[in-house]
């Protein structure tokens, strides 16, 4: 019985899952209280929300691209 050939194998799905987890962590780092009309929240300009979280999200997207393009060794 011949094994079916899929586009992705277990390693690809694992890499995609890790990339998705990193993206979710990045979006959680961006979350926080926002400013309202009556109150200004200075935390919207924090380093975590402006610099760290977008870099984490970008690295997660790059990791997902790597997970898609990764070829297994036994093909």
How would you briefly describe this protein structure?
The protein has 75 residues and is mainly α.
How does this model look, in words?
The protein is mainly alpha-helical. It has two helices and no strands. The mean pLDDT is 89.
Q: Give the ordered list of helices and strands.
A: HH
Mean pLDDT: 89
What structural class do helix, strand and pairing data support? mainly alpha
Q: What is the percentage of strand-forming residues? A: under 5%
Multimeric state: single chain
Our count of helices gives 2
Tell me the total number of β-strands.
Answer: 0
Q: Into which percent range does the helicity of residues fall? A: 55-70%
Attribute tags:
single chain, 75 residues, mainly alpha, 2 helices, rod-shaped
SSE order and pairing:
Elements: H1 10-30, H2 47-69
Helix pairs in contact: 1-2
């Amino acid at each position: 019985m011949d094994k079916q050939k899929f586009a992705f194998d277990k390693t690809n799905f694992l890499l995609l899952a890790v990339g998705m987890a990193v993206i979710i962590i990045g979006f959680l780092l961006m979350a926080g209280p926002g400013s309202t009309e009556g109150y200004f929240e200075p935390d919207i300009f924090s380093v975590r929300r402006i610099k760290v979280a977008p870099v984490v999200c970008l690295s997660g997207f790059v990791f997902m691209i790597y997970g898609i393009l990764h070829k297994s060794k036994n093909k």
